[in-house]
Every structure is written in structure tokens, then in C-alpha cells.
Amino acid sequence: MLSFWKSFVNAVIFLFVPLTLYAQTNDLKLLDWKPKSQLVVKETRILQPKFPVIDFHNHLRRLEDTEKYLEEMDNAGVWQCVSLDANSADDFYLEHLRVSQKVSKDRFLLFFRPDFSKINEPNFGENEAKKLEKAVAMGAKGLKISKVLGLSIKDKSGKLVTVDDPRIDPIWAKCGELGIPVVIHVSDPKAFFTPVDQYNERYDELIDHPGWSFYGDEYPSKEEILAARNRVFAKHPNTIFVGAHVGTLPEELHRVGMWMECYPNFYVTIDARISELGRQPYTARRFLIKYQDRILFGTDTPPDAEAYQVYYRFLETDDEYFDPTGGHHLQGRWMIYGVHLPDDVLEKIYYKNALLILDKAKKQK
Length: 365
Description:
Number of strands: 8
CATH superfamily: Metal-dependent hydrolases
Radius of gyration: 24 Å
Distance between the termini: 101 Å
CATH class: Alpha Beta
Strand content: 5-15%
């Protein structure tokens, strides 16, 4: 009888344990799934870049951290860093300039950001252009346009303010007159404009940040926003426009290349998009080499030595299947591959192209 019960208990354990394990696996939520790759491949640590670096896209609005930013830049071999937070609103740009220049007169490059909350005021464009000119005289190096333009800013009539709204023309023209570049970020990743469902490749990111979804009738399409942006490029050929995030279309590099050929005044930065570039390493490498004179380095991540090292690894090595999350944050559930660029291309992307653009402003003075 005892042997019968032993056999019975063993049978129950044999059946129950696998079913329990199956249930645990079956109940795992996608947001909680963090698989560890079993792949063993070469891992290269790049502590310092081959050449000096100008980070052409960053946000240094936490002025109390300015000295910390400089320390991290030194640790990572970053020569200069652009802050896109010299806001016109409440004259914040004055304080930003004061603090940054006190810590270092030449390591921080501040870009003025127009105050679109005043779009309804008479002579909005002319007034912001005058303010921009004052900021440049005090040391500002460019202009920044964020994605709220074309997506969420509305005038008093309730109409969405488009990127090519004529009220903004005086600002674009003033940038051309002063010889300063415009870093322009309009629209967002393609996945952010599609339904947040089982087919969305950035589903878990959008579930975690629902405010990043721009799908629905209340928003214009991504194509509408980009078309308006491109009309601005054509209307203001003397103004240099630097498209943030690989022109906000790294998923279609052939189209970005087409725009660069169509608009000689259009450049792009790679900031916060190595996750997109690194999953298409062959195409990305060809693109970076072909347009090597029109591409700038950037991160969109507050200065951090370890974050910079992820970018260096992507650009300088041929490492395979590594996690880009440390360079910005989780953007899609995939790994990336290095593009091991030639030294002459690296040098241009790291700093030479940025210098050429910034030097134009100096020559205008």
C-alpha cells in the first residue's frame, strides 16, 4: 500500500510541476520579458573616441548640473556640447547663457528656442527674430525647433500651426541672414503614428509612454508634417536646417538621402537613433559614407560617459548584436550592429561637419 501512495505522489509531481512552469511562462507579460542573449560574440569597449566630438543635439536645461555636464564631457572626450534649451519663454535663454558661459566660455553651444505660445501676437515672427538676433549677439549659436510645431501648437482660432506657417518665415530668414543653423525636430518615429496594437514594433515603449502616441484623427499624419517641413527647406535655401534624429525618418534612409540631394541646405544628426541605424548596419554604413559631409554627431542624452561609449562602439567597431539602450533608452525590442566607419568619415561626423556649419555664422559677423 505504501508503494502505491509513493507512486501516486510521484505521478502527481511529475504532472503538476511542468504544468505549473508552463502556467508561469504563459502568464509572463511582454513588459516584464527581459531575455538574456546566449550569443557569445566579440565585445569592444571604446572609452574615448578616435577624434574630438561635438555633440550637436543635447538638452542641458538643468543649470545646476552644468559643471557635472562638463565633467562627463571630459570623461568621454567630448569637446563641445549643444544645448537646445535656450528658451525664449520667460527669457530663460539669458540665464542659460550666463550659467553656461560662467562654467566654460567655449564648451557649451546654446541654441535659441522660439516661444510659440505668442504665435497670436501681432508681428510674432519679427519679434522673435529680433530676440534671436539679441541672443546670437550674446553667444547663442543656432535655433531649435521642437516637435510641438506641426503636432500640438494651435492658434487662437483653434487651427493647428503648421511647420510652414508664414508667421514663422521671419525667423527662418533671420537664421539665414545670421548664418546660424536650425536644428529641427518635427514628427516622431513611424511607430508613433500607427495603432498601438499587436503589429506595432514599439508597442511596449508606447504602452509605457502613452503620451508618445500620435495616432488618431486629432493629429496630422507624419507625411503631412514632413511635407510642410520640406516646403520650408525649399522656401529658405540660404538657411541651414539640421534634421534631428536622422531627419526623423531613419526607418527609410533612402528617402532621407533623396531629401539631402534635393535640398543642399539640409543636414542630419544621428542623435537617439542608433537603435534604428544599428539594426540595418549595411544600409546605414552605406548611407553614412555616401552623405559623410552632411551628417553630424549627437546623442539627445544629458552628458554621460557610458552613454557616449555606446555611440562610439556603434560608429567605430564591427561588434555584433549589442544593446543600444544605454545610449538613450529602450527603443524597440532589438539589438544593433556596429558600422565600423573609416577614419576620415568618423572625423567628419564627430566634429568637422559641425565646425563647418558653425564657422558660417562667424563669417557672417
